[in-house]
Amino acid sequence: MRWLHRQDWLSPVQWRRRILLWTGALVVGLVTIVFVEAAKYAYQLFYHAVTINPWWPMLITPCAFGLLTWLTRGSLQATRGSGIPEAIATLDVEDGNFRHHALSLRIAAGKMLLTLSAFLTGASVGREGPTVHVGASLMYTLGRRFGFSEPAAAGRFILAGAAAGLSAAFNAPLAGVMFAIEEMAGAYEHRMSGIILTAVVIAGVVTLGTLGNYSYFGQVTANLPLSSSWMAVLATGVLCGLAGGIYARMILLDFRPLSKLAGLRKRWPVMFSIGCGIALVLLSRLAGDSLYGTGYAQARAILQQQSDAPGAGFGALKLMANVASYWANIPGGLFSPALAVGAGLGHNLSLLITGAPASAIVLLSMAAYLSGVTQSPLTSTVICMELTSNQTMVIPILATCLLARTSSQLVCRTPVYRAFANRIIEQYREQQLAKSRATLAAATRQPGTTQTPS
What we know:
mainly alpha; 20 helices; 0% strand
């Protein structure tokens, strides 16, 4: 048995796969760095226009939303949204044509360019989901190009690419691993552990070596002692988890009160998107133009208890801005905006909960809201732990995220990424069924053919 294991370790095929995965992770890390810096620059250009005249977005944002929706109606439809559902769907559907349509280099390039366009117009979206999509696309294309096109082998490249993308986007290797296990694969696969871990580490080293050893939200030294202050765990877990579940149901547009909106978006997608852009601008004006973009600066200011942190209404208004941006069906993710909403809600709760540090309540709220949205408590825990360089609160954060997941399920039974992925898969199967029926109908209409009774 040891000799067989050694033979597998020395196998040329296995080494070719390892080298491809290491190379792919390196490429994903470099592309992510370019994407991150380009997204920052694009948003800075938009914010400069806002500082010149705060009403410029009323012209820029709605028109750009409508244009982005129009551009993604045809062959670039796979670039819409965060991109994580597309990556999940390609793991479930092993059809090569389906995977190529969702993960081609053309789709990856379009995802990056159109997401940058969304930042350039002030959309309240994130870049982490698109990075996952791009990472999966690059890894899949590389594996397919060098002979790993067999469905199971290609799936391993997709999974590793998605994990490497998230790791590089957040500079959080452990978060990438947990995301791949909990969100993408759904279950831990032992034989995949080394592949995922290697890809994640390489992608993380690339960003670490280029951008430096930094924490996404800075170092947070908050602590939550085992005392009555643990009431903060209960409050943030329940309330922020419910808020996350409500947000997930809203962007899915499967609330009965929202059925008319879903119909309007399907009938007039471009005009509906323009309306979403107008709503985003008006909401942001109410919040002092603080709702555009990822919300990173606002979340950091709240978490660090800075004097220029946004006011008490930021959390609710940012949630509505995120909904408006996602309803527009434009490219962009929801990780960073969700963390910003959680920080805003945590600021409100810190004014009501006594006996616990305000920064600790904000951190718990961020984790709870993200867990409520994604229903991935382990990923949310590790993300918030790594993004703040805070290991002392890992147990309170984990307890909060587990409670938030349970609270969210009361409102939204299916995790939001899985729900979107199921829609993509259902649409694909309907298209396949329609093609089969059309082929059968064409065959029966050919002269000289007879229909065999069933």
